[in-house]
Specification:
The complex is a heterodimer of chains A (637) and B (133).
Chain A: H1 2-17, H2 20-35, H3 39-42, E1 49-53, H4 55-60, H5 66-70, E2 103-107, E3 110-111, E4 113-114, E5 118-119, H6 121-124, E6 132-139, E7 153-159, H7 162-165, E8 167-175, E9 179-191, E10 194-205, E11 210-212, E12 215-217, E13 221-231, E14 235-247, E15 258-276, E16 279-296, E17 303-322, E18 326-346, E19 349-350, H8 351-354, E20 364-379, E21 382-395, E22 402-414, E23 418-429, H9 433-436, E24 451-464, E25 467-479, E26 482-488, E27 491-497, E28 502-514, E29 520-533, E30 537-552, E31 555-566, E32 573-583, E33 588-595, E34 603-609, E35 616-623, E36 628-636
Parallel strand pairs in A: 2-7
Antiparallel strand pairs in A: 1-6, 2-3, 4-5, 6-7, 8-9, 8-36, 9-10, 10-13, 11-12, 13-14, 14-15, 15-16, 16-17, 17-18, 18-19, 18-20, 20-21, 21-22, 22-23, 23-24, 24-25, 25-28, 26-27, 28-29, 29-30, 30-31, 31-32, 32-33, 33-36, 34-35
Chain B: H1 9-33, E1 39-43, H2 45-51, E2 57-59, E3 68-71, E4 83-85, H3 88-93, E5 97-104, E6 107-112, H4 114-119
Parallel strand pairs in B: 1-2, 1-3, 3-4, 4-5
Antiparallel strand pairs in B: 5-6
Classes of the chains: A mainly beta (637), B alpha/beta (133).
Chain lengths: 637, 133
């Protein structure tokens, strides 16, 4: 009875608080806000499996960092390597600085590239995303239109635009471990159809510390980030720059007890892309400077200084021709990577003296690519997509030159409720420049074969009323996989081609329920089976995710539950996060967010080796997602 | 490749729905302010396609025949008419603007000016008072 009374009072209050008409106008404004989702205009309809995080999702999940999104992303999730850098494909046994270069990051239509390590993900994976309107994630080399190099996953960040975000916004955030974040943006029309968006943020990303023996391990990071875009209908200029100072976690320490492990990274991206008639073109320049300093009181490497500078000059041109049944794209791309180690010393001795096979005088890699893609419409609701991509990779002083061929074949069939997508793709991946220049340092000496991947993927979705069901089945077969299985001078852990074929079979089922136009429930169940791995041979992974977004009066509430288990550790990992935002006015809001509240999020294993006798110690098991609580104040004006 | 359009059916539907909601908003707001059964509107080109779908509005080709002007640019000789702006800039700049609908600060905004409405002997209806400044 009490409950019925409360409900009646609530209904009466709501009825009196809003007249029918004003409620209708508020509803209309809400509907316009939700329906004006920019991802509906940018998503690649016919390009493999995609996940879209709309502006609404990002705001209500209080996702302020890219890892807030990646941690639940199919198929890899988010993890960090021994250097504390974003590296979702890293394994427990590797000491490589970065192995996830086939996950590419784009801002709008421009790739954020890295001259030495391949992908900008290395420094952007834990970057603030206050400048982002919406995010699209694609898996399985979605299209050659964007990717110049092999792309296992494509992360497309779309920046905010003046037509929607004109004005100013200030955001201040404070949380666990004394972490803080401040950001500000301003956006406006410039006249004659030009507009700009500019953003600056300062992050003091202090994190949980872990103890290895008696040494405190830190992944703290301080950075300043600037993003500006200036654009009109056919032209787009982007400037993205940041400077980071970070503690580099375990770094090269064998037993995870560094006495000093720090990095300083500066990055600049400047790019222009545009279109004229049937042509579209892009020119971009990425520059990165990274200084890494490491000291240890045990082991064979007591100090390491790696100071490098790298740049990528990228130029693309594409021609698109459309006829009644075909959409044909022809493109040519040129990518020039230049890099130089100002200092690369181990135990204060130049690495080239210690390791004569290290060819640091290899300072340039040129990649020339041509591609053809066609979408052929068989009938009104069926499309066949074909694509072929041929690349030549040349280094200025190395035997690791290659010519690679990639191709893809896709079929999409759709009707009012069903979508069927079938994709087969063949991808090839060559060594990233830091490996090419690191024979005997990162890889075993000698020519490496390109890593080959054949992917078959089936994606079926069904949508009716407020319900959407989806299933994704995939089989990936890799040959000549580049893994830390090699031994050089009796030291293990060097990258080499793996002589077995690795099979990765995945199945993911998803369900979305829209309570109304604004609120939704999204849930997935996933299974991965990886055969023929070097150490454990077989890895089986199970995952389950739930995301629930609700609005109640002036409150936005989100709950996220991520479950993970594998057959090796057999531990149940649970990452439960929740948040509430109170909109005091339309311009002022206060948010509270808790991440990994149960402190049971998925952990990565970091191998430790006793430096005095070479015996294996117990691995460190540490999560890339800290348990944290943050409070945020947002003001728009 | 016209048939490919069917593949982007959903995206188009979303876009169409959004424009429908915008039209409903114009009908609701202007219908409350102007008590005429059919409102004569002089609009800029950008908005004309949307407004033409309304039974509540008659789109006129000369501002002299209009009851209200709607748009982003009011370079007309009818400076004695009330205007409804579709940009923040116009809302701030033009002295005859009775109200506006535009995107700013990441959300759609509806604003009305009581003093300008009064200048044209128009009343601010009760249901729109919360949007007035």
């Amino acid at each position: 009875m009490n409950n019925i009374k409360k409900l009646l009072i609530l209904i009466t209050l709501i009825t009196f608080a809003f007249s029918e008409d004003s409620l209708n106008i508020d509803n209309l404004l809400n509907s316009i806000e939700v329906k004006n989702d920019l991802s509906s205009k940018t998503k690649l309809e016919n390009s493999g499996v995609r996940y879209i995080y709309t502006r609404n999702d990002i705001d209500r999940m209080q996702a302020r960092n890219l890892k807030d999104i990646l941690k639940s992303a199919y198929p890899l999730g988010y993890s960090e390597n021994r250097y504390g850098l974003s590296d979702p494909m890293t394994g427990s046994g590797t000491t490589q600085p970065f192995v996830s270069s086939s996950i590419r990051v784009f801002i709008d239509d421009q790739e954020i590239s890295n001259g030495l390590y391949g992908s900008g993900l290395i420094t952007m994976g834990d970057m603030d995303i206050g400048f982002v309107d919406h995010i699209e994630l694609y898996s399985g080399n979605p299209t050659y239109e964007f990717s110049t190099e092999v792309t296992f996953s494509l992360i497309k960040l779309y920046s905010k635009v003046a037509s929607k975000d004109g004005g100013n916004k200030l955001l201040i955030n404070y949380g666990s471990y004394d972490a803080s974040h401040t950001s500000f943006y301003n956006s406006a029309n410039l006249g004659k159809d030009w507009a700009y968006f500019t953003y600056i943020s300062q992050n003091n990303d202090k994190r949980k510390k872990y103890t290895s023996h008696t040494t405190k391990l830190s992944r703290d990071k301080k950075d300043t980030h600037i993003f500006t875009s200036i654009y009109n209908k056919d032209n787009h200029i982007i400037l993205d720059a940041f400077t980071q100072k970070r503690d580099s976690f375990i770094n090269r320490s064998l037993d995870a007890t560094p006495t000093d492990a720090t990095m300083e990274i500066d990055n600049l991206h400047l790019g222009y892309n545009g279109s004229y008639n049937k042509f579209s073109y892009l020119i971009s320049y990425d520059y990165g400077k990274a200084n890494s300093n490491f000291k240890d009181d045990a082991g064979s490497i007591r100090s390491a200084v790696v100071n490098s500078k790298a740049s990528v000059l990228n130029s693309d041109i594409k021609y698109t021709h459309e006829s009644k049944r075909n959409k044909f794209i022809f493109g040519a791309k040129h990518r020039l990577k230049k890099y130089k180690y100002d200092q690369f010393t181990l135990n204060t001795i130049d690495v080239e003296i210690l390791v004569p096979t290290a060819n640091l005088n290899n300072t340039q890699q040129t990649i020339n690519t041509i591609f053809l893609e066609n979408q052929y419409s068989i009938k009104e609701n069926s499309i066949i997509t074909t694509g072929i991509n041929k690349s030549s990779i040349k280094n200025n002083n190395s035997i690791q030159d290659d010519k690679i061929l990639m191709y893809r074949l896709g079929f999409t069939n759709t009707n009012d409720k069903w979508i069927f997508k079938t994709l087969f793709s063949h991808n090839e991946k060559v060594l990233d420049p830091y490996m090419v220049s690191g024979e005997g340092v990162y890889i075993t000496p000698g020519k490496k074969k390109p890593q080959e991947e054949n992917l078959f993927m089936e994606n079926i979705s069904y949508e009716k009323d407020n319900n959407k069901y989806e299933i994704i089945l995939s089989k990936l077969k890799t040959k000549n996989h580049l893994l830390p299985i090699g031994t050089f001078n009796n030291v293990p852990g060097f990258i080499d081609n793996y002589n077995k074929i690795i099979y990765i079979r995945s199945a993911v089922a998803g369900y979305t329920y829209h309570y109304n136009e604004y609120d939704k429930l999204y849930t997935t169940v996933g299974y991965n089976k990886i055969d023929n791995l070097p150490i454990n041979d077989l890895l089986k992974e199970y995952s389950f995710t739930v995301l629930n977004l609700n609005k109640y009066n002036s409150y936005d509430i989100f709950n996220e539950f991520l479950y993970y288990k594998n057959n090796i550790g057999k531990r149940d990992y649970i990452d439960y996060s929740m948040g509430i935002t109170y909109h005091k006015t339309q311009d002022l809001s206060i948010s509270l967010k808790g991440v990994n509240l149960l402190n049971k999020a998925k952990k990565s294993n970091y191998v430790r080796i006793n430096p005095s006798n070479g015996s294996t110690e117990s691995s460190l098991s540490i999560s890339s997602i800290d348990r944290s609580i943050t409070i945020t104040l947002e003001y728009t004006f | 490749m016209k048939k490919f359009i069917l593949l982007i059916y959903l995206a188009v539907t979303v876009f169409a729905n959004n424009k429908e909601y915008e039209l409903k908003l114009y009908e609701k707001v202007l219908g409350s302010i102007f008590e005429e059964e059919i409102i004569n509107i002089y609009s800029d080109e950008q908005l004309k396609d949307i407004l033409l779908k309304s039974k509540k509005f008659l789109i006129v080709d000369s501002c002299k025949k209009a009851t209200v002007l709607i748009g982003n640019d009011f370079k007309t000789k009818c400076d004695n008419l009330p205007c409804f702006a579709t940009s923040y800039k116009m809302f701030k700049k033009e002295e005859n603007v009775i109200g506006a609908f535009y995107w700013r600060k990441g959300r759609p905004q509806l604003k009305l000016k009581t003093n300008v409405l009064n200048k044209f002997a128009l009343n601010l209806p009760e249901n729109l008072k919360k949007y007035s400044k």
